Amino acid sequence: MIHSVRGTVLEINLDHAVVEVGGVGLGVFATPNTLAGLRRGETARLATSMIVREESLTLFGFADAEERELFTLLQTVSGIGPRLALATLAVLEPDTLRRAIADGDLAVLTRIPGVGRKSAERLVVELRDKVTAPEPAGAAGEQARMPAPVLGPRDQVVEALVGLGFTARPAEQAVDAVLAATPDVDSQALLRTALSSLGRSR
């Protein structure tokens, strides 16, 4: 099992990065938010999970071990494979996901592409006892303990595009144009469409 990789980022693509480790370029699939934190030519360290299939070995990368643990836990649910688990983490931050499962919040869970009401109910039933909802900060010291703001889908996609090498202004304009045309588009489709638009304008 490969638990982490550390090396120079050679490529950043729509759904994966290539990290050079010991002279070998490893393809690592990751969420747009994780990819947005990488920079070509710079050293990066990712927590990883390797999925072994008869015909392939696939490496998934995460910003930290917490995301990797949730990725593994999600796959214990019937019908949830690695791709859907990764899509879940692309749409929901770890704290948001744990809270939605603990609270049985189906409205939040069905925001995940490919997860309908029945799948959301299965997530709650099978994982509710395995996750701990994050505790709300108390009044005393709340500001000091307050986590960093969770980026909305628009800002996540803009960051992902910047991570792919586009400058902030054109990235924002491309994302806003897609949202104006299709307000209900999901994060993955938003990223794909905006990237396509930027590619045509280059």
TrEMBL record:
The keyword NADP does not apply. It is found in: Cytoplasm. Residues 151-202 are annotated as: Domain III. InterPro entries: DNA_helicase_Holl-junc_RuvA_I, Hlx-hairpin-Hlx_DNA-bd_motif, NA-bd_OB-fold, RuvA, RuvA_2-like, RuvA_C, RuvA_C_sf. It comes from the Bacteria. The keyword Cell division does not apply. SUPFAM superfamilies: DNA helicase RuvA subunit, C-terminal domain, Nucleic acid-binding proteins, RuvA domain 2-like. GO terms for molecular function: ATP binding; four-way junction DNA binding; four-way junction helicase activity. Belongs to the RuvA family. Homotetramer. Forms an RuvA(8)-RuvB(12)-Holliday junction (HJ) complex. HJ DNA is sandwiched between 2 RuvA tetramers; dsDNA enters through RuvA and exits via RuvB. An RuvB hexamer assembles on each DNA strand where it exits the tetramer. Each RuvB hexamer is contacted by two RuvA subunits (via domain III) on 2 adjacent RuvB subunits; this complex drives branch migration. In the full resolvosome a probable DNA-RuvA(4)-RuvB(12)-RuvC(2) complex forms which resolves the HJ. This is Holliday junction branch migration complex subunit RuvA. It comes from Pseudonocardia endophytica. The gene is ruvA.
